[in-house]
Design brief:
By secondary structure, the protein is α/β, with parallel strands linked by helices. It contains twelve helices and 15 strands. Helix 4 (about 60-70) crosses helix 9.
């Protein structure tokens, strides 16, 4: 970058050298670029890696990231298996082209014995939206399935995605819940996610399975997330409800790295909050997007004073701070929408306060 470009980037909160991912191909490339720390950690990986639920929003980029980190660390012999039903064959073929072995498998109906052997498992399976109307499905996916997986891989290291929803709403100025705080899930989805944690913890305490529980909220990758929800509303001239007035967000690339690096910390069990260091004001974010788009943001409601917030200090101590700061993500998100790049169309529903998704 030249001096002018560097000045502009820094004015928008973008570290010099960290360029806007101009389109989906560039975004995927950025998400799949491993850090030196991840390369070093995965160089010590014992056994192959199985990613369960790899067809979701975060799964493909996590698999690519793992494959590249292993290759860069001279561990090309370690296989990365991406397990999903793979109804989207193009996505599976793209992963295969990148050296990831895809496995078409229905985790709810298939025999776990048919899954590949592995010394490391990333569990990304979850049911959230629609859980209010079909809570039994949420419990089957989020709490019953983990028992089958834990029994299939008793000697493996398992990094299991959980959610900050296992905590109660807390005061906006509290700094967020820490890992040692009492849980207080609201609604069937959050309770079933706590069930997932309890089942994996049972495997850890009774069979010695090494487990890392990752309480995530909320990952963003420009096609979806809290920032996409707010930015799209502002761009369309639609109101942004600020009743839930604060939120945590984190760059998806960082979230994927932490999930993979947490395998090295798996214990009986190890629990970590995964999010960014800021408590972001929804009103402020709407205002920033309004400035980006050259229009006034429309807000409704009044801040309630409480929100779902997590303190990720432990995560940052162990794994460093996210490489893409919040202000950069705001600028990137605005650019993404201005240029008409695709959005997932799946809202995060971060504003929900009664646990009904």
């Amino acid at each position: 970058m030249n001096e002018v470009a560097v000045a502009v980037a820094e004015a928008k909160g973008t570290p010099a050298g960290l360029a806007f991912p101009d389109g989906e191909a560039a975004l995927e490339e950025l998400l799949a670029t491993p850090s030196a720390a991840l390369i070093a950690d995965l160089a010590d990986l014992e056994g192959d890696l199985v990613v369960l639920g790899a067809g979701g929003k975060m799964g493909p980029s996590l698999c690519r990231l793992a494959r590249r980190a292993l290759d860069a660390g001279g561990r090309g012999e370690v296989r990365v298996y991406a397990v999903s039903r793979w109804s989207d064959r193009a996505a599976a073929e793209a992963l295969e082209a990148d050296g990831v072995r895809t496995v078409a498998f229905d985790l709810m109906t298939g025999d776990p014995a048919e899954l590949p052997d592995a010394g490391n498992v990333v569990f990304m399976v979850g049911a959230k939206f629609g859980s209010a109307g079909a809570p039994e499905h949420a419990w089957a996916v989020n709490a019953a399935l983990p028992d089958r997986i834990a029994r299939r891989y008793p000697a493996a290291r398992i990094a299991a995605f959980s959610t900050g929803n296992v905590y109660p709403l807390v005061a906006a100025g509290s700094g967020g819940s820490v890992e040692s705080d009492p849980v207080g899930p609201v609604g069937e989805y959050a309770m079933s996610c706590l069930g997932r944690e309890r089942v994996f913890t049972h495997a850890a305490t009774t069979r010695g399975t090494r487990v890392a529980l990752i309480r995530l909220n909320y990952a963003v990758d420009l096609r979806y997330g809290v920032l996409a929800d707010i930015a799209a509303a502002v761009y369309a001239g639609e109101p942004v409800d600020v009743t839930t007035g604060q939120a945590n967000v984190v760059w998806q690339g960082y979230a994927n790295e932490v999930a993979l690096r947490s395998l090295g910390h798996a214990a009986t069990p190890f629990t970590v909050n995964l999010t960014g260091p800021e408590t972001a004001s929804v009103r402020r974010l709407a205002t920033l997007f309004g400035a980006e788009f050259g229009r006034e943001a429309i807000v409704t409601g009044a801040e309630s004073g409480s929100a779902l917030l997590s303190d990720a200090s432990l995560c940052h101590e162990l794994f460093g701070y996210p490489e893409v700061p919040l202000r950069t993500l705001v600028a990137w998100q605005a650019d993404w929408i201005r240029r008409g790049y695709p959005l997932s169309g799946k809202a995060t529903k971060f504003q929900v306060r009664d646990g009904k998704f």
